[in-house]
Amino acid sequence: MIDEVVRCGYSKCRAELPPPGPQGGRRRSFCKDTRWPGGKTCAQMARAERDALEALGLDAGRATFQLDADRLREHVDALRGPVADLAEALAAVRTRLDEVEGGALAAVEAANRAAAEAEAARVEAQQARERAERDARLAREQAAQAEEEKAAAVERAAAAARQALEATEALGAARQQAQEAVAARERAEERADAAEQRAAEAEAAAREAGVRAERAVTERDAARARADEHRAERDALRAQLADTAAELAGATAARDEAQRAAAEADRVRGELAGERDEAVAALTAERQTRERLDRELARARDRAEAEAALRARADAELERLRRELEGERARGADELRALVAAAVREARDPGSP
């Protein structure tokens, strides 16, 4: 006969349990080696599940009520995400409340100490008045008992009356101190709220300064890119100027050669009249070439001067942007430090004006 399959009694496990050994014995109800978070066994998890059902007012052992554990787990899993988000939000709110409360904690504690001191003074004054009243009663009893001690009793009664008056005045002063302590605590709370608002304003100013700094950095990068383009154009103009200078040197050499040829032509002009026209034409062509090279050299010089002026303007613009960036960073840092220092001073010494 084949035994029925027995599964783990924990609803979330339900693993198949091994049959008893060859020697027989009672079947196990839960897994032996399975571990859940926290190192708990299936039996411990089932016990905790049963306790949770009992806490909800459900009796898992009744035959008339069957709890669908899988459906309950689905509901729990569906609620786990929102509950986790709510827990994170509550933790953030609690952190923020702790930060706000920390700033006013010293002031509140100081106000509480002042109130405690005022209460102690009031109690002491009350005790002094009670002692004075007891002394007055004792003086009246002694006056009734002995007429001969009347003068001394009257004097003690007067002293007791003075003490009672002083005690009453001390009680009024203590009440006044208690009211002032309450007012100081309220002012401390108001200053804590103002410090929190100033801290928020400081954060906004810091963010605005960061935006301005990023904008200045972007403008600086653009100016640098333009300066790089101007430098590249300047290098090209310099190369062209060098080529033009080389051509001018060649033309100058050709001109010198032509002049020497013209001198030679003049020397032999009497003998070679026909060659004079060719020499004049060559000289004219050389002169035209030299004039053309002079014009190209002038244009190259103009381009070089324009490039130098453009580079100077780019360098000036870059320097201006650098100064503005440094000024914006310095002003933002100074404003942030001032606001943070004021908030810290307000939090540390809420009683100061």
The total tally of domains equals 3
Number of strands: 0
User: How would you sum up the global shape?
Assistant: elongated
Radius of gyration: 52 Å
Roughly what is the average pLDDT, rounded to an integer?
A: 77
Q: What is the name of the CATH topology of the largest domain?
A: Helix Hairpins
**Helix and strand pattern:** HHHH
Taking the sheet with the most strands, its summary is: none
| Structural class by sheet pairing and helices | mainly alpha
Number of helices: 4
Proportion of residues in β-strands: under 5%
Keywords:
353 residues; single chain; 4 helices
How would you describe this protein?
This protein is mainly alpha-helical and 353 residues long. It has three domains: 1-65, no CATH class; 77-204, no CATH class; 209-348, Orthogonal Bundle (Helix Hairpins), CATH 1.10.287. 81% of the residues lie in helices and 0% in strands. It is built from four helices and no strands. It has helices at 42-55, 69-145, 150-267, 273-348. Helix 2 (69-145) crosses helix 3. It is elongated and about 175 Å long.
